[in-house]
Amino acid sequence: MSARDRDGDAVRLHVVTGKGGTGKTTVAASLALALAAGGRTVLLVEVEGRQGIARLFGTRPLPYEERAIAAAPEGGRVCALAVDAESALLEYLEMFYGMRRAGQVLTRFGAVDFATTIAPGMRDVLLTGKATEAVRRREGDRRRGGRDAGGRSHVYDAVVVDAPPTGRIAQFLNVNAEVAGLARVGPIRNHADKVMATLRSTRTAVHFVTVLEEMPAQETLDGIGEIRAAGLNVGSLIINMVRPPFFAEPVLREVAGGSFDTGALVRGVKAAGLEDAEETARTLAQEVAEHAQRVAGESGIRARLDGLDRPRLELPLLSRGVGPEELDDLAERLREQGV
Amino acid sequence: MSEQEPGGRARGTAAPDFDVDALLSDGDTRIVVCCGSGGVGKTTTAAALGVRAAELGRHAVVITVDPARRLAQSMGLRELDNSPRPVELSATLGAEGPGSLHAMMLDMKRTFDEIVEAHADPERARQILANPFYQSLSSSFSGTQEYMAMEKLGQLRQSGDWDLIVVDTPPSRSALDFLDAPERLGRFLDSRLIRILGAPPATGAFKVLGAGVGMVTGVIAKIVGAQVLKDVQSFVSAFDAVFGGFQERADRTYRLLQARGTGFVVVAAPEDDALREAEFFIERLREDRMPLAGIVLNRVHRTAVRGLPEQTAATAAAELEIAGEHDLAAAALRLHAERARVQHREQWLMGRLAAAHPGVPSAEVPARPEDVHDLAGLAGIGRALGRG
Question: Which PANTHER family match (chain A) (predicted)?
Answer without folding.
Answer: ARSENICAL PUMP-DRIVING ATPASE ARSENITE-TRANSLOCATING ATPASE, ATPASE RV3679-RELATED
